[in-house]
Specification:
mainly alpha
Length: 331
Amino acid sequence: MTAETGRKMSDLPSGDPALLNRISWARRWNDRQSSMEYALAARRKALDGKGRRSRAEQGFSLRTMGWHAFWRGDLKLAMDYCLRAETYLPETEFAFARAGIYSLIAKIHYNRNRFDLAICSIERGQWLVQDIKDDPATIADLMLTQAAIQRQSGERARAGITLGRARAQSTEENAALVDVCTANLLLDDGDAVLAREHAETALRYCEDAGCTVILPFARSILAGCYLARDKHLDAYEQISTGLRELNDDDYLARCSLLRRRAAHYLCKSEFEEALGVLTEAVRIAEQQTYALSQKQIALSIASVLEEIGDFRGALAQHKIAWRLQNETRIR
């Protein structure tokens, strides 16, 4: 400590990385560019400092960068940022931050077909916050990720229960995500009417709040609901609007919307057009390691190839899907 102020020598440099990080985190849903700029500025300031506080602010900025990388769909970069953030944020001091990072890592794992690793990450995050109740957003985020894992791994009833628990903890963006996830679950179960209600609720929130991160996913599931009800023009509008609103590096949302566009073509028996769109979607899935989506797209391509009489090509796609299914790890 210094004689004049009694402050520790681990003081942050001039400027306030803590404030920059708080602004960055608060803006992440609505203003991605500004949020990233603040995160980068916070990290630069923290890198000039020394001691525990500066290290923590480096961790918080890396967490924000990892969050953005995931929602863009760059899973490799997201994982890199998350692992680096962990080194600056020990569990004993930053339980909620680490729990949020574990939730992000779980999302990355299940998109890569590694449900076993995703489950371990979620369980670790939930263990960290099990006795702490003052951050419902982090708790809700963990539940949302858990519900997604359960839905994709076939535990549909448990996914519904988990989503109900998440809804009780959720407000604002997390509530919109609950509606998106609920709509996905209901649509998979064949209830397009109720699924549409949840999708429209999510879309209204995103448009009113300017939540650009969730917006394309809300449009994608709403388009799926419209297709299930043979409302092809409404589906086309949501898909086209969603694709226009994307940035070039929005890989995850683009892949989702392209799959809806292919489904739209298939509803009109436009098989060649559907095949072209699915080929673009699988290219993104392969490059960004979306093994779960890659498997699902391979099955869709196989179905299209069967329709146009290319049975050899269809068999090749089924083999890809079988290989990816065999590589899936549940526990």
